[in-house]
What does this fold into?
Amino acid sequence: MNIFKTFLIGLLLVAVPIAPAYSQKKKKKKKKKHRITAVISTAKGYIGTPYRYGGTSRKGIDCSGLMLQCYKKIGVKLPRTAKEQSKYGNKVSWGNLKKGDIVFFKFKQKGEKWYHSGMISSVKGENIRFIHASSSKGVVESNLMVDYYRKKVKNFRRVIK
It folds into this structure.
């Protein structure tokens, strides 16, 4: 009986320090999920906003301005241009995409190159959607898997830790 009590006390001593660590991880995960939800909700609030090169407001916004404003809402300070934003945060592969990641595109037309960015808003298998400021339609949610976008993807970045 004495051995059983010693074992039980030892087990409790080992288990007690683990509980707070588990609780901390759970809280951190919940906070991250809340931040991702807030960023996507902010981006969706811009849907319908007209496109304006260099814009950062609801009167008119460009793609990098949209990312700047949305992530600013949760305390993440991004660089101003899509090209500079494409170097910020951690690289993510196609197979590891999550909501809240940023997608970057590189387009070429008549010898001119330009960068474009958008926020991943939904990942359901092969159905991946993103919110971005289209120069022709303003802020919209689009399907990343259509050839026009899929073939122009430069990289993905995760900025919410």
User: Anything to note?
Assistant: The longest strand covers residues 112-124.
